[in-house]
Structures are given as structure tokens and as C-alpha cells.
Amino acid sequence: MKSKIHEYLLKLNNKDMSKTIKKQAKLKVACAAFTLISALAFAQNISNTQNSFNRDGFIFEFGLGGGIISIEDSAGTQSFDDTQGGGTFPELKFGYMLNNRLAVTVSAPGMIYTLNDNDRHFGGIIPSVQYWVKDRWWIHGGAGLAIDGPALYDIEDNINEDWNTGLAVMASTGYEVYRKNKFALNVQSKLLLGGVKLDNNNDREVVQFSLGIGFSWF
Q1: pLDDT at 37 > cutoff 80
Q2: Separation of CA 36 from chain center
Q3: Burial category of 44 from C-beta neighbours within 10 Å (exposed 0-12, middle 13-18, buried 19 and up)
Q4: pLDDT value at position 1?
Q5: Cis peptide preceding 109, ω within 30 of 0
Q6: pLDDT, mean of residues 189-204
Q7: Which of 52, 95, 155, 215 is a Cys-bridge partner for 105, taking CB atoms 3.0 to 4.6 Å apart?
Q8: Residue 147: which of 171, 129, 130, 170 has the closest Cα?
Q9: d(CA 165, CA 216)
């Protein structure tokens, strides 16, 4: 009898350790990818060290892409172990150039995920700052309102109609691969961390990492 109990406890311990390792591995992969893209952009050898692209006035950008999202509910209905793939279209950014390298912006990042066979969207409205470290490479980050709600095409009465809010932090980096006149096309990566308050004092926490392209006008 003692032997069976001991075996059962060992199985539970191994299962918990496996979940913890998986969770840590996913976060490490996202952080490593984010760091790698930043390092590659920083290492670019730009022959023309002068900024030859004029950025002034208002800035508008929309982006599309895809990535991974992990969700965990304090109620136990979702776990960070259940990683999903999702799309990020559309992501919007509005702002104003303070000078040729610095802009203040408001961003609307987000990603679609599935919960109980319904499509939902976790995103936010993030006041942020964008800075061009090099002629083509920029970094971008901020903190603001997290919004968790039904995907607009999948709202159902009494099933998938709840909206939840909280706090979110965003960091992104990108590299302009094509520029002409007042237009720039960039490749970018983005990390979004957030949490919202659910009914019955439950919480939902989200980690999402995405890769995509952005279309910018200055």
C-alpha cells in the first residue's frame, strides 16, 4: 500500500515539474527570439550613417502577422501550458514625430485566441514611445489598458459576449526594409504581457509574442 502511494506521489511531482519546465521554455523561446531580432537589427552595417529619410508630423501604421499566445485563468480553465497560435491583424499605431528619431504614439496590439470553442481577442490601448536607434532600426514600448473581449465576428448572446479590462505592457522592435517618399515597410517583433479581471474575482493573464510586417506613413 505504501509503495503504491509513493509511486502516485512521484507521478504527481513529475507532472508538475514537466508543466513548469514547459512554461519556462516557452517564455525563454519568446524572449530569445525578441533578443535575436534586436541584435540582428543592431548589427546591421548601414553604409550611410546620416538619416536620409525625413520623418515629421503625424505617423500612422497598420500591421499584420502571427505568433503564439499563452493564457492562464486563476479559475483553472486555462493554463500557460496550452499555447495557441494566432493572427494579429489588424494592429494599429497613431502618433506624432517630436523629431526625426522620436515619436509619441498610441498603439492597439492584440491577438485572436480560442476559449471554449469561441474566438476571442486579447489586446490593448497602449500609450507608448518609439525611438529610431539607427537610421532604419527602431524600438518601441509602453504600458496601458488591456482589453479582453469576443472577436467581433464571433459575438454570441449569453455565450461569448463578456468584456474584461486590466493592465498591459508592450515592447517591440522593427527594421525598415523599404522606404519611399513618406512610406516605410518594416519587419517587426512584439511582446505583450497583460492581465484582466474576470467575474467572481478571477484573473486572466496573457503572454503573447508575434512577428509581422508594418506599413507606416509619416
Answers
A1: no
A2: 16
A3: exposed
A4: 54
A5: no
A6: 93
A7: 95
A8: 170
A9: 28
